[in-house]
Amino acid sequence: MYMTEIEARGLGFGRLTTPYRLPLEKTLMDNVITDMRRGGIRFGLVATRGGTEVWRSGIRTDDRKRDSSSIGRASVSKTEGCEFESRLSCH
Question: Full-prediction pTM beyond 0.70?
Answer without folding.
Answer: no
